[in-house]
Amino acid sequence: MRHTQQPAPEPPLLRGSLIVLRRKCGKPSCACAQGTPHETPALSVSLRNVTQLLTLRPHDLPAVRAALRRYRSAVQDLDRRALAGVKLLRQRLRKEKAEQKRARR
Q: Is residue 69 included in any domain, yes or no?
């Protein structure tokens, strides 16, 4: 039997922002009642103009940060490629226009 190797899954991309939620729990004897609120990391994501918050555990943060970096990098790469495409199109159109001018003479 032959084993076919499946490609490794792509690492996930995440769009959004890491934020920290700060709140008081409401217990009168808790330290948060005197000042320092509880803090919870969260991912803020806007989907269809609705902001959603996904609360995270501290051990989720490294993977979420890495996925956010991969997303930003992918967007930057896509922007570079799109701008290169615009540049090539502009060059082709200028060349065609110049050729048309020469043909009319």
A: yes
Q: What is the pLDDT along the chain (105 residues), one digit of tens a residue?
A: 566 777 777 789 999 999 999 999 889 889 888 888 999 999 999 999 999 999 999 999 999 999 999 999 999 999 999 999 999 999 999 999 998 888 887
Domain that holds residue 70: 17-104
- Please give the torsion angle defined by the CA atoms of residues 36, 41, 42 and 43, in that order, rounded to the nearest 10 degrees: 130
Number of domains comprising the chain: 1
Helical H segments across the chain, by residue range = 61-104
Assess if residue 37 is contained within a domain: yes
Evaluate whether residue 25 is within a structural domain: yes
Q: The pTM is what?
A: 0.74
Count, in order, helices (H) and strands (E) of the chain.
1, 3
